[in-house]
Amino acid sequence: MIAITGSLLMPMAAMASDKCKNIDITVQNKTGSEIRVKKIKHYDYDKSKWRSNFNVSNKISNNYQKTYTKNLQYVKNDETMVAVYYYNFRTGNNSWAYGSKFVCNTNDNVTVVVN
């Protein structure tokens, strides 16, 4: 019974260490208007799904940027991409902006430009 319990716990421990830690996600606003960042998520290419829907609520003026430090789950040393959901005050629309694909390592920096 102990051997079975131990073998069941191992995959969970391995998954817990699959975090890509302390990722600086910089959102640059190039829309010509003030925006409000609402959510940040990242894509897990291994599982073909979006993860970590972080809720935030920060205004960013045009031609300014804001950096968020996050741990991205399940993508350590794997390809991922960050997406930012935002509200544009000029247009009155909510939209997604997508960063480029990258291999996630601890203390990485990634930028998402909102146009």
UniProtKB/TrEMBL annotation:
Signal sequence residues: 1-16
Keyword Signal: yes
Keywords: Signal
Protein name (database record): Uncharacterized protein
